[in-house]
Amino acid sequence: MATPLLSRARFLLSAATARDLPPDSTPEIAFAGRSNVGKSSAINALAGRKRLAFASKTPGRTQTVNFYDLDGAGRLADLPGYGFAAAPFSLRSTWDVLVGGYLASRASLAGIVWLMDARRPLTPVDRNFLSWLAPRRSPRLALLAKADKLTRAERSRTLAATRRALAATAFSGSVAMFSASSGEGVEETRALLEAWLRERAEACPGARE
Questions:
Q1: How far apart are the first and last CA of the chain?
Q2: So what CATH class is 5-203?
Q3: Where are the domains of the chain?
Q4: Contact status, residue 136 vs residue 106, Cβ threshold 8 Å
Q5: pLDDT, tens digit, for every residue of 30-43?
Q6: Rounded to an integer, what distance in angstroms lies between the CA atom of residue 80 and that of residue 132?
Q7: pLDDT tens profile 79-134
Q8: How many angstroms separate the Cα of 17 from the Cα of each of 21, 116, 126, 135, 148?
Q9: Which of 110, 117, 144, 204 has its Cα between 20 and 30 A from that of 124?
Q10: Confidence at 9, pLDDT banded by 50, 70, 90
């Protein structure tokens, strides 16, 4: 049985500015979300690793786009978290330019994984992020992270309500519950992301495999 592609992930580099980004030639999947929502934990769970991506309890710690190479067949891009009000305005502006520019211009983008806290989905800063997603045609997946913090009934109600709310916006994509702690949604998400990477590589045969 083939080794899952995401399990081959290795840290590649951190980009603090657009000039630091790696060549735009390999399929990438970007992980976006509010500060401290669990992006790093999600990447670790999907890769089957404990400390591939550093999961901090301090909001706003990730101030760069952190790239993880998938054995040459693709990359994961962990974007800086948004909505960290305690950060200086100049630093928040820098993040906006970096993330906004990345999402608007990255030709190799194979998909976007958007994480929200299942206990508080679609906060005002989450809704603001929808404007950044709007110009992209890439596949999208909204994950309601930390689903283990909700009861089964709460998960069902929250998932249905979030799907209804997003259906009324410009968002087009799937919505699913996810928990890095319990493993809920991990296998399904991993399979979907690997399918995105394969589809992008087939559409762009010049990408390195």
A1: 19
A2: alpha beta
A3: 5-203
A4: no
A5: 999 998 899 999 99
A6: 14
A7: 988 876 555 555 566 777 888 889 988 999 999 999 999 999 999 999 989 888 88
A8: 7, 25, 23, 21, 35
A9: 110
A10: very high
Residue 46: which of 135, 111, 99, 104 has the closest Cα?
Answer: 111
pLDDT category, 207, cuts 50, 70, 90? Answer: very low
Strand duo 174-177 + 75-78: pairing: unpaired
Query: Residue 107: which of 173, 189, 40, 22 has the closest Cα?
Result: 22
Confidence at 186, pLDDT banded by 50, 70, 90: very high
**CB 206, CB 18: distance < 8 Å:** no
CA distance 5 to 190: 9
Provide the b/e sequence for 6-32 (b: ≥16 CB within 10 Å).
Answer: bebbeebeebeeeeebbeeebbbbbbb
Q: Positive or negative CA dihedral for 142, 179, 75, 78?
A: positive
